[in-house]
Write a structure and sequence with these properties.
This protein is of the alpha+beta class. It folds into three domains: 10-92, Double Stranded RNA Binding Domain (2-Layer Sandwich), CATH 3.30.160.390; 99-196, Orthogonal Bundle (DNA polymerase, domain 1), CATH 1.10.150; 213-268, no CATH class. Helix content is 42%, strand content 11%. It has eleven helices and four strands. The chain has a four-stranded antiparallel sheet, covered by helices on one side. Helix 4 (99-110) runs antiparallel to helix 5, helix 4 (99-110) crosses helix 8 (159-178) and helix 5 (117-130) crosses helix 8 (159-178). The longest helix has 20 residues, at 159-178. The N and C termini lie far apart (99 Å).
Length: 273
């Protein structure tokens, strides 16, 4: 392997007209044909024979890019890898499927598990609409940031739909992994992953659960068997249908000692009157 690197300059490469091979160093050559066309080649010896690996034409590959390709080939050789064989194997690899293609495959494979056609169409339409940014992406390139970007706009505004879509994205990516189309953790996984990133839905404040009126007699009987001011206060509250705070904070002075009358101070009532 030639020891001197970077003998050529961009200006020299553009002006060379003499047919033959012109060395840049490190086994990188610019080949000029008799017709004047130029191309890059990397030469190396393996198994006792010399091999030539084409790197591309001069018009498509710049001097800097040719040097990068040659450097990558030298790294392969240093690691015991034949760069031409690697290039061939990569060319034979099937192109990665898109997220949409894997989703369609999953829907087709599982449509018999669903009760009706409506369910499979809901799957398809929800992903096409709310995961549109993922639909045409190679399934092996989808990461957490891209999943979050798809879900974030709908996460709080239509939260139930968003949660179904997240689950469907996770299922499609699991299917891709099972088929060897991707590896690593599922970026749509919820527990211990997206639950640390996406905002949690705020719970709506609701009223306290009510007791069925048929159960009131038994409750009252139970309260009357209990000692203590708490039981008396709750019994009093039920019989008078007042607000809890009005009873809990009532001073003894509001209760008449001679008449069955309770006069609540206006300032203590909800409307302050």
């Amino acid at each position: 392997m030639a020891q001197t690197l970077y003998r050529l300059s961009a200006k020299t490469v553009a002006s060379i007209k003499e047919p033959g091979r012109h060395a840049d160093g490190g086994n990188l050559y610019l080949s000029v044909s008799r017709s004047g066309s130029k191309s890059w080649s990397f030469f190396y010896k393996t198994g006792g024979r010399m091999r030539e690996m084409g790197l591309g034409s001069f018009t498509a590959i710049s001097l800097a890019e040719a040097r990068e390709k040659a450097q990558a080939a030298r790294r392969d050789l240093a690691n015991g890898i034949d760069p031409l064989e690697r290039k061939k194997s990569e060319r034979l690899k099937p192109a990665s499927k898109t997220f949409g293609e894997v989703a369609e495959d999953y829907i087709e494979a599982h449509k018999s598990d669903w009760k009706n056609d409506k369910h499979q169409e809901q799957w398809r339409s929800s992903l096409k609409q709310h995961a549109a940014s993922l639909w045409k992406m190679p399934v092996n390139e989808i990461d957490t940031a891209q999943v979050v970007a798809a879900l974030d706009p709908i996460w709080l505004s239509i939260s139930e739909t968003a949660r179904r879509v997240r689950g469907r994205i996770e299922t499609v990516l699991d299917s891709a992994k099972a088929k060897g189309l991707r590896s690593g953790e599922n970026p749509a996984r919820w527990r211990g992953h997206l639950d640390m990133i996406l905002a949690k839905k705020r719970k709506k404040a609701g009223n306290f659960a009510s007791m069925d009126y048929h159960d009131i007699p038994a409750l009252m009987a139970d309260l009357r068997r209990q000692d203590g001011i708490g039981a008396r206060a709750l019994e009093f509250l039920i019989l008078n249908a007042n607000r809890t705070q009005e009873v809990a904070s009532a001073p003894w002075a509001e209760f008449s000692q001679t008449e069955p009358t309770w006069t609540i101070a206006g300032a203590r009532m909800k409307m302050s009157k």
